[in-house]
Amino acid sequence: MSFQRKQEKDFTKEVKELTPQVEALAKDGKLSEAVDRISALEKQTRNASDMPSTASLLTLIVRLCWEQKDLDALNTQLTLMSKKHGQLKEAVVRMVDEAMPYLDTLEDEEKSKPKGGRWLELLNTLRDITEGKIYLELQRARLTAQLATYHETLAQSAPKEDAKQREDREKNEAKGDEKVEKEPVTAEDHINAAADLMSDIQIETYSSMDKREKTNFILEQMRLESLRGNWNKVRVGSRKINRVYLKEKDASDLKLRYYDLIVHLALQEDNYLEVCSAYQAVWDTDEVKADEARELNVIENIIMYVVLAPYSNEQSDMLHKLYADHRLEKAPLNYALLKCFVTKELMRWPGIESLYGTELRKTPVFAPDSDLGTKTGQRAEEERKKGTKILPPGESRWEALHSRVVEHNIRVIAAYYSRITLQRLTELLDLPALTTERTLCKLVTDKTVYARIDRPAGVVNFQRPRKTNETLNAWSTDISKMLSLVEKTSHLVSKEYAMHEAAQAGRKKVKA
Q1: Could you tell me if 191 and 228 are in contact, meaning their C-beta atoms sit under 8 angstroms apart?
Q2: Spatial strand order in the sheet of 419-421
Q3: Confidence of residue 164 (pLDDT cuts 50, 70, 90)
Q4: What DSSP line would sit under 356-409, residue for residue?
Q5: H-helix or E-strand containing 460?
């Protein structure tokens, strides 16, 4: 069990006396002698559990080595002092905090060197010191983020992975071989190294880090995982973000970064309803509303992705809510398309294509050369294994829009027709007979509509047959209504007879 001993003696006076002496020795080039004198007093303060004095001496050693530009001595003393027997935790924390700002000074000079940089040596020294120490978890997280940024910078100038290297890597992964630690060579190696470094930090468990820094760290984890195509980890990271915090005004930049990653993640899964929800959250940002061009782009995306989403109760509810929001009329063309899906009328695809195709095909959502939503990583592997023809993302979404129009038309036909011939159905849908049948079967399988196809007769029946209980209940209801009407009619007839007899009796009395 770890515990802090009670302070036995105060060495504040001795530390104050020693400081100017060792500073003078260091300026005279006698750094090793200054370090020896500090180390001698540091042993006494450490054994006496004098934390303030020990921390002052450790930071003094670090500062003197830095001022004398002796980085070898700096790395050596950092390692030695952190490993001293019975070293005080708070003193080590202050020593590391003293050394970390030196990385920023060395960064411009040394970080650009791929190997042997003094910046990298100091960074690795500090990461070795912080490894496995819970009281230095915050410093280790920040150092790891700097090292990940370093690898990402090197990835920009490193060679791309060729086909043979990719094939060898995939074979090793398929065999389940253990990863051998090696220096990153290709751009993919550096990106993987950066992502691995960041993912090793369980930042969501750090209570000492403030909300903004923690959220920013998780977003960096998500971004690096997305660069190497590990979308499952991006999904896991998205669940660690507190969306309530993102609604605060000072977190608007983090909110936009988060939902941008969510959009790319949802496009990998073709989850257009989630993309629509993400853009609605982006729209609910003061920064976006203040920029008219940006707001218009967001509104257009909201409408297009809710239309692209497959039909469901949630999608239908969102579709009608958006149609009722007249602020979306700022994008008249897209709003008119939205109205077509809300109205229970047939949409002929050639007409939709002629009215909206020219403008929609210019947007990143439907442009033929658009790379928005290109499958990467695991998703690309899954697509390749299926063996189907892979369309460009823009073309794929245009085909999805065509499918949504056809599905809407089938739902409209099912609402107005009880039976229809296949020939007439294909004419209304502007599709070949085989495609019509496949689309109808898909909607039936998804339980969107009820239909039965009589192929010999060439007839589609949209009327659901009643079960025995339902038929009996309908008959019972009809008989109850009939008896109720008979009883009411009988009562009215009796009332008329009574009123007639009363009137006759009144007239007889008058005559008498």
Answers
A1: yes
A2: 419-421, 459-461, 452-454
A3: low
A4: HHHHHTTSTTT-TT--TT---HHHHHHHHHHT-----HHHHHHHHHHHHHHHHH
A5: strand 459-461
Place of tokens 């442009």: 367
- The answer to whether 46 and 84 are in contact (CB under 8 A) is yes
Cβ(77)–Cβ(62) under 8 Å?
yes
Two structure tokens written together for 443: 């909607």
DSSP type of residue 88 = -
Q: Report yes or no: 288 and 282 within 8 Å, Cβ to Cβ.
A: yes
CA torsion sign for 331, 334, 337, 341 is negative
Q: What is the mean pLDDT of the chain?
A: 87
The pLDDT of residue 170: 59
Quickly tell me which residue has 């992705």 as its tokens: 305
pLDDT of residue 263: 95
pLDDT in tens, 258-290: 999 999 999 998 999 999 999 999 999 999 999
CA-CA distance, 316 to 327, in Å (whole number)?
A: 19
Residue 70 has pLDDT above 60, yes or no: yes
d(CA 351, CA 160): 46
pTM: 0.83
Match 């007899």 to its residue by tokens.
501
Residue type (1 letter), 176: G
Give the three-class secondary structure for 419: strand
Long-range contacts of 117-122 (CB under 8 A, 24+ apart): 118/71, 120/150, 121/71, 121/75, 122/71, 122/74, 122/75
pLDDT on residue 495: 86
Q: How many angstroms separate the CA atoms of 240 and 242, rounded?
A: 7
Residue type at 466?
Answer: R
- In the chain, what is the greatest distance between 2 CA atoms, to the nearest angstrom? 148
277 class by beta-carbon count within 10 Å (0-12 exposed, 13-18 middle, 19+ buried): buried
What Å distances lie between residue 460 and 345, 444, 466, CA to CA? 19, 12, 17
